[in-house]
Write a structure and sequence with these properties.
By secondary structure, the chain is an alpha+beta fold. The chain has a single domain (2-80), classed as S-adenosylmethionine decarboxylase, CATH 3.60.90.10. The protein is 20% helix and 44% strand. Strands 1-5-4-3-2 form a 5-stranded antiparallel beta sheet, with helices on one face. Strand 3 and strand 4 form a beta hairpin.
Length: 90
């Protein structure tokens, strides 16, 4: 099977939640740290604000959606197979 993580987070800085480059870099760093295999990455900047990022992994997927105006983001992560879970990423 696998591990399914669902995250709802509030009070995050709006400037980070609305920065496509930071979200892309953080997502790639987390995938690398987890030793997962990235198949496809799509990051979209909404107007006037908000970002959605999806990563298709050989081990499953990660999806992140941000609402900077509320300081909120949601993430859905599913990992199976040989990925390495654990630790912390800031």
């Amino acid at each position: 099977m696998g591990v399914h993580l669902i995250v709802d987070a509030w009070q995050a800085p709006a400037d980070i939640l609305n920065d496509v480059d930071i979200i892309r870099q953080t997502l790639v760093a987390a995938i690398t740290a987890g030793e997962a295999m990235l198949i496809d990455l799509c990051v979209h900047q909404f107007s006037p604000q908000g970002v959605t990022a999806t990563a298709t992994l050989a081990e499953s997927h990660i999806a992140i959606h941000t609402w900077p105006e509320y300081g909120y983001f949601a993430a859905d992560m599913f990992f199976c197979g040989q990925g390495k879970l654990g630790g912390r990423h800031e």
